[in-house]
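Pipeline run #58 for the internal structure catalog. This entry was flagged by the ingest filter as a single-chain record with no existing model, so it goes straight to prediction. Upstream metadata was stripped on purpose; only the residue string is passed forward. Reviewer on rotation: M.T. Logging verbosity set to normal.
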Amino acid sequence: MNTKRNIFLWALYDFANSLVSIVFFLYFAQWIVIDQGLPDLWYNLTFTVSTILLVLTAPYVGVLLDKRWRRITGLRWTAAATAILYIICALLAVSGKGLPALFIFTLGLFMFQFNFTFYTPLINDIAAPEKKGRVSGYGIAANYLGQFTGLLLVLPFSEGTLSLFGSSARAETLLPAVMAFIIFAIPMLIFFRETPKENTGKEEAQFASNTQELIHKTKHLLRYPGVGLFILAYFFFNDAILTAANNFPIFVEQVWGVSDTIKTYILLGVIITTAIGGLISGFIADKFGHKRTLMCILVGWVFILPFLGFIANFALFVFATTLMGFWFGANWAVSRSVMAYLTPKESNNLAFAFFNLMERASSLVGPIVWGVVVGSLVGLGSYRYRLATLAVTVFIIFGLWALGKVRSDRAVI
């Protein structure tokens, strides 16, 4: 069902979920670690715990999606659960209850991640194979436009100009972002039309049989040329990128000690270049090859992360961080399109369940590495955060090696 309306709604949902995620990313992280004084490792463990929950659910759901479940129905339920949990988290934050807020945030983060198991494979309903790269790019561009909007939306709250509860500025930003997420997510959840599945009426949702089928389909999927290797590669390189991104606000605070307003403007610059990178990279990948493009992106990351970690001049840091946005956008857009061309049609939902799982499974290892580095080298002060960027870069190198063995969508690499 390749319609302009569905493409617009699909991209609009990316806009909505990124709007709320950027606000929690910037302000909740700092509120927990800096305002509430909880250890970096505790904050990073929220990603590990939510990933474990995702590991236990996403592949099983992928099988059911391939059999008979409607993806839009699952998206509706998970979006509603995400909104409810984030509202509770926001209310706990303005009440100054750090540990309960962190617990609810972990559950909300799991549900937020889980909804991509239903959302991402919908690209197969709205884009022809030769246009998946550019449609993926539209989604990425909408994602970062949502982040841009989210930061501007809550800027008056972060500066203390507006206040709903008379609480700390960082805590005040959360609820407005959740409400905006609900408003912009509703059109997709109501009006998106998914291609109907044939229902023979013979299948029943029996856990044992579905689990056995999951194991069988997973073995078949991983034997398909390139899929297993790409999932492994994606786990490695996304580990470094996502971990560095999740800790970026704390890194900037601890290393540079600048205000939240300056952090916001830095992120606004990054978001602009990221949106451009996501959009342009889709067209580049369609023209020159998806694997070839992704290889070039990863080579760039091997140099970018250490460079950003050890820059000594703040003006140069801001300039380099803004340029880094091109790589952020390109990474997400092209990775998604590589998964699309590698996946056998009959298992695309399961494949994207694993893709989503690997995107979040990097939160199983990377945050622990980051947390251990900064937690065990306290005597080095802010320099420990610089070393953490170097530590996670190793994962990109492993990912580049694994990606090199993946079959190409072009005859010659």
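catalog note: DSSP finds 17 helices and no strands in the chain.
catalog note: The first helix runs from residue 4 to 35.
status: ready for reviewer M.T.
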